[in-house]
Amino acid sequence: MTDRREQTAFPNQRQYYTERRPVQKIPTRGQVEEAARRQAALEAADPSYMGHSAGIHPEHRPYITDDYELEEGDEYYQTRLPTSARRYQVSPEQIYQSGNTRLHFRYVDVPKRKSRQQLPPPQQPERYTEEIETTFPKGKHHKRSIHPLLYLGVGMVAMAALFLLLSSAATWIQTTKDDLTYGRPRTFNIDAVVGHNDSAVNPTHFIALNLNRHVEVIEQPGGDASKMKVYQITTLFGDGENLTPVTLSFRDLKDNGKLDMLIHIQDQTLVMINENGTFRPAKPGKVKGLL
Known about the structure:
21% helix, single chain, 3 helices, 4-stranded antiparallel β-sheet
């Protein structure tokens, strides 16, 4: 009967006590009125019983009659042993009385299910990388193959670089040697008896000169500078031709007892014919095969 009434009166409340507890006896209306008349009679008979001085005297101290004695059993003071059950937050107890029945209620905060709780985002596990030196077996280790044309290309580039280096070195060596031999401008001196007022004692002096690419031959017959002759031979073209040496040699090309003059410029040879006390350029085709 008590459980059905509790559920009907408070459907949204959760019942805290499931068994009926012993309750205090409630005074009736007649008992309350009788106590009020007794209090009024005491105050009228003894003025000290009322006001702020009431309760000072021993006879005024409150006492409990048998009508107000509480009936409580020993099971009321029994405490439950600690368990592993989950504890909830409980609100202060509220008491409701209906007739001779007293109801005790408390609000319990029931947590949501795990499926409805907002769980924190899962943390990513920390990863650690450890370098381990691994040695592969020799039989299973594959080397990267190189195309044979790569070796060919590298060799050609190396040969070209070596050729340029050697050419530059040879050019520098030859230029240095010519500087020591012919000087700057390039000059060549020679003496010869060509029959121009000269003799073995006083031969004719010849000077071959490359002056700014202009090739000239200076003749001093018998060593006499007053009778000096200058022959304009040719003009050279090209880079570095101003450092080309010019040399002279003499030989009888016509078998007439007179020495003809041969002018050597690198791998080229020009012929000057000795005739009538002077030298003239040879006609084309006349000295072919004589040199």
